[in-house]
Write a structure and sequence with these properties.
The chain is of the alpha+beta class. It is built from three helices and eleven strands; from the N terminus they run βαββββαβαβββββ. The protein is globular and about 70 Å long.
């Protein structure tokens, strides 16, 4: 597993009903093993509903994805080990048994889950600058190299200028469609 520097969200599978215990255990392990520079947030996706029982209204939280926890982290051998060996964790979703690294969630998937939870102000970490050279990693322009011309933090989009047929062409992309060279 190569060490990476990119912060991404990963889905971790847990024993059913242990989501909150896994969250608490993992947060303690991050602190005790000094991994706060690699593992940032642990979320149990929930949404709140108002239930009326015996004439009384109360707010109840329902797990959106029972048996799953989201972890925002930089995937390295060490961070993988800390998460994977947390009590109650059965593994990463999208990882196979041959030791390949897990597949992170796409930023639009994370935004969708956060909106379900009522968290609309989710900000993607974005450490690119204007005029920086980048490689396009997804979409019809995958593998093209270009230069960032504009950054829209609100819409989480960038305009990258690529050269096609000898002409500079602006292409609008999502943050997760580019990577540093």
């Amino acid at each position: 597993m190569d060490n990476q520097t990119e912060v991404s969200w990963y889905v971790v599978h847990t024993y059913s009903g242990y989501e909150n215990k896994v969250k608490a255990n993992l947060e303690r392990r991050v602190e005790s093993m000094d991994m706060s520079d690699k593992i940032f947030r642990v979320l149990v996706p929930v949404n709140e509903e108002i239930e009326v029982k015996n004439g009384k209204r109360k707010t109840v939280q329902h797990k959106v994805y029972p048996g799953y926890v989201l972890v925002e982290m930089i995937m390295t051998d060490d961070s993988w080990y800390v998460v994977r060996n947390t009590p109650g964790v059965t593994g990463f979703v999208g990882a196979n048994t041959s030791g390949a690294k897990p597949i992170p969630l796409l930023s639009n998937e994370v935004r969708s889950i956060m909106r379900q939870m009522g968290v609309d102000d989710v900000k993607t970490r974005f450490d690119f600058e204007q005029k920086e050279a980048v490689r396009i990693v997804a979409g019809p322009f995958a593998n093209f190299v270009g230069t960032i011309d504009q950054i829209d933090m609100t819409l989480e989009k960038v305009q990258v200028v690529v050269t096609m047929f000898g002409r500079d062409t602006p292409v609008e992309l999502d943050f997760d469609q580019i990577e540093k060279l």
